[in-house]
Amino acid sequence: MKEKQICYICNRECENWIEILGSYVCRDCEQEMINEDASELKMEYYRSRLKSLWRNNIS
Predict the structure, then answer these.
(1) Any long-range contacts for 5-14 (C-beta under 8 Å, 24+ apart)?
(2) Confidence band, pLDDT 50/70/90 cuts, at residue 1
(3) Source organism's superkingdom (predicted)?
(4) Which is more confidently placed, 6 or 57?
(5) What's the CA gap between 11 and 5, in Å, rounded?
(6) What is the DSSP letter of 7?
(7) Angle CA(55)–CA(10)–CA(28) in degrees, nearest 5?
């Protein structure tokens, strides 16, 4: 069983996650991003968090 991690998107502790660039995204956030309509306001939040993740790993 995986150890618990903090989700980079929602900041909640999670047991079921994927790792992206050394950070963790819970399966709930992953599913929301996959199923969210690209024109929805919440998708802007996801884009912002993922851009931040990329920027943190580039520098």
Answers:
(1) 8/49, 8/53, 9/33, 9/46, 9/49
(2) low
(3) Bacteria
(4) 6
(5) 9
(6) B
(7) 110
In the chain, the number of structural domains is: 1
Q: Residue 20: CA atoms inside 13 Å, Cβ hemisphere, count?
A: 20
Of 7, 10, 31, 11, the closest CA to residue 19 belongs to 7
Give me Rg for the CA atoms of the chain.
12
Contact 13, 5 (CB under 8 A): yes
Distance of CA 33 to the CA centre of its chain: 8
**pTM, whole model, 2 decimals?**
0.77
For residue 45 the two structure tokens come to 């939040």
Q: What is the DSSP string of 1-22?
A: -PPPEEBTTT--EESSEEEETT
Q: What six digits make up the tokens of 48?
A: 């912002």
Rounded Cα distance, 26 and 11, in Å: 9
